[in-house]
Specification:
heterodimer; A: mainly alpha; 9 helices; about 0% strand; elongated; B: alpha/beta; Peroxisomal Thiolase, Chain A, domain 1; 2 domains; 12-stranded mixed sheet; two-stranded parallel sheet; globular
Chain lengths: ~200, ~350
């Protein structure tokens, strides 16, 4: 396979030289009847180049794929289940406590639970623990609201040195921004669907 | 010094043969705590236990890394800044600021280089040519990288909890400085081979090993064809291909008929304990090969000769710095990653055996 690649590379080099030659011919032929002729040749040359490049890429990527390690999916899923489950259980405990101790209704209690998870995550991020949890838990620590909190606080910490405006102000939502934007848009869209169905 | 002909300073299609060797007079490596817990424990000249180095930003921390490496290297050679003819180097920060801020303090002519993680090899080529051409007495080549600074700039905030893909590499917190002088030394650079951009359409920025391996294959094959010195070289060392890039490179070199088995290594795989330290494919960054070469391979060459390993009185190493010349913006736009690999041939020969 190596030898074939070398041949393709040589062919590509020749085509590129031809391309340079054609471009200069095309400039000379500007405004004459020959112009279209050179345009066609250039186009043909570029298509040929792209095809060889594509062939080279495919060969290489094929050989790269063979050595690419497979992610340990079962282990990752188990870790995610463990960490995500623990975060959600903690939230549920807060909800039950609020309901039992203060007689709150479910909506208020779940609000308090979300805020609690966000604050605890923010503190864990600040003291440098949450990134370790995230490395272990993967999606389990990203998907709950704690992931959202972590992405905002970590961005704020990272860009603190660039100042309050262009640092924290401008960069705090770099990771969470897309979630906020598309989350809001999705809820507007679903609200509309809900309204029309009623 | 008499004038030399320039025409015969090149071998084959693109290998440079220095008219007289360029000595690596002295060097120094500094690294972070994680690096010191890896395979090269205790072999760095200085280890910073704390990642920020007491600075207010990651950028400043990286600048301090590089400054420390340079100062230590000069100290070892018994020199100071004003002895340098040029300062050269590069890093991974935007507009190579860590190097420029270090150069600001040296007050010597400065040539900033950007070859991503190949910058050290690039610097050795440019510096070697300057010295061989007689344009200076001494060059310092220095490169650095800082894990957290690189993460902030290229990936996610450092405190964000993300799981890294298995092909991802861990940017090394470290810096290496090398002082070059004309003429032969214990360690000398004999040849150089500037790399070409090779892009095989890999666009996954957490798989830079694959992207760079194509360039490394090109440069190493070309050097072997040019010089036919494959049997004479004891080590072929790539910069930071990591496990995946290393496998690809090794496989293809063997397929092309080059017997590199047993002498081919990668700095990215020689720095951390991949499993225990959770670095996946290995180390990367401008600092990676800079510290592994200085703390690992160069002393190893000396040890090999002293132990009469392979029964030789000299030891030769082809160092191939590899770089992925991408930017975060082009990656987001879906562009593929251009890879590059610059090579230099380094020889160790004990001073007592050298003819004057």
């Amino acid at each position: 396979m190596g030898r074939q690649d070398e041949r393709l590379e040589e062919e590509l080099a020749l085509l590129r030289e031809e391309h340079a030659h054609l471009v200069s011919q095309r400039v000379l032929a500007e405004g004459t009847s020959e112009q279209e002729h050179y345009d066609r040749l250039l186009q043909k040359n570029e298509i040929q180049c792209a095809r060889i490049q594509e062939q080279l890429n495919q060969d290489y990527q094929q050989s790269a794929k063979v050595v690419m390690p497979k992610p340990p999916i079962v282990r990752n899923v188990w870790h995610a289940f463990l960490v995500g489950g623990m975060i959600c259980t903690a939230g549920q405990i807060v909800i039950l406590l609020m309901q039992e101790l203060y007689g709150m209704d479910f909506r208020s209690a779940s609000g308090i639970a979300s805020v609690t998870v966000v604050i605890v995550t923010a503190i864990l991020t600040g003291i440098g623990v949450y990134d370790e949890i995230g490395r272990f838990g993967g999606a389990g620590s990203m998907v709950p609201i704690s992931g959202f909190s972590n992405s905002i606080v970590s961005a704020a910490l990272e860009w603190k040195a660039s100042g309050m405006i262009y640092g924290i102000g401008a960069k705090i939502f770099t990771i969470a921004g897309p979630v906020i934007l598309y989350g809001t848009m999705a809820s507007v869209f679903l609200g509309l669907v809900y309204y029309l169905l009623q | 010094m008499e004038l030399k002909k320039t025409a015969n300073r090149r071998i084959g299609s693109r290998t440079l043969q220095f008219a007289s060797p360029v000595a690596i007079k002295a060097w120094a490596t500094v690294a972070g705590r994680k690096e010191n817990e890896g395979k090269l424990t205790g072999q760095y000249d200085y280890v910073f236990e704390e990642n920020r180095l007491g600075q207010k930003s990651w950028e400043r921390a990286e600048q301090r890394l590089q400054q420390s490496a340079l100062e230590l290297a000069l100290e070892k050679a018994g020199l100071s800044f004003h002895h340098l003819s040029y300062y050269m180097g590069g890093d991974l920060l935007n507009q190579i600021v860590a190097t420029s801020y270090t150069a600001r303090m040296t007050d010597v002519p400065y040539i900033g280089l950007y070859g991503a993680c190949s910058s050290l090899a690039e610097g050795m080529i440019v510096g070697g040519c300057m010295l061989d051409g007689g344009y200076g007495e001494r060059v310092a080549v220095c490169t650095s990288s800082h894990h957290d600074a690189a993460e902030q700039q290229l990936r996610y905030p450092t405190e964000m909890g993300v799981q890294r893909t298995l092909s991802a590499q861990w940017t090394v917190t470290g810096s290496g400085a090398y002082i070059l002088e004309p003429g032969r030394g214990e360690w000398s650079i004999l040849q150089a081979i500037p790399g070409k951009i090779v892009d095989r359409g890999i666009s996954n920025s957490s798989d830079m090993g694959s992207a760079m391996a194509a360039a490394a294959i090109d440069t190493i094959s070309c050097w072997i064809e040019d010089t036919e010195l494959l049997d004479d070289v004891d080590y072929i060392v790539t910069g930071d291909l990591g496990k995946i890039g290393y496998e690809i490179c090794k496989k293809q070199l063997i397929q092309r008929g080059y017997a590199v088995d047993g002498k081919y290594f990668d700095c990215g795989m020689e720095i951390y304990h991949a499993e225990q330290q959770d670095v996946h494919a290995g180390g990367s960054g401008c600092g990676c090969s800079a510290v592994v070469l200085g703390a690992g391979f160069l002393p190893q060459m000396k040890a090999d000769v002293e132990n009469r390993k392979r029964g030789k009185t000299t030891c030769r190493l082809l160092y191939v710095g590899t770089g992925a010349l991408l930017s975060p913006v082009t990656v987001q736009q879906g562009e593929s990653i251009p890879g590059i690999a610059h090579g230099v041939l380094i020889e160790y020969s004990p001073t007592d055996l050298q003819e004057v």
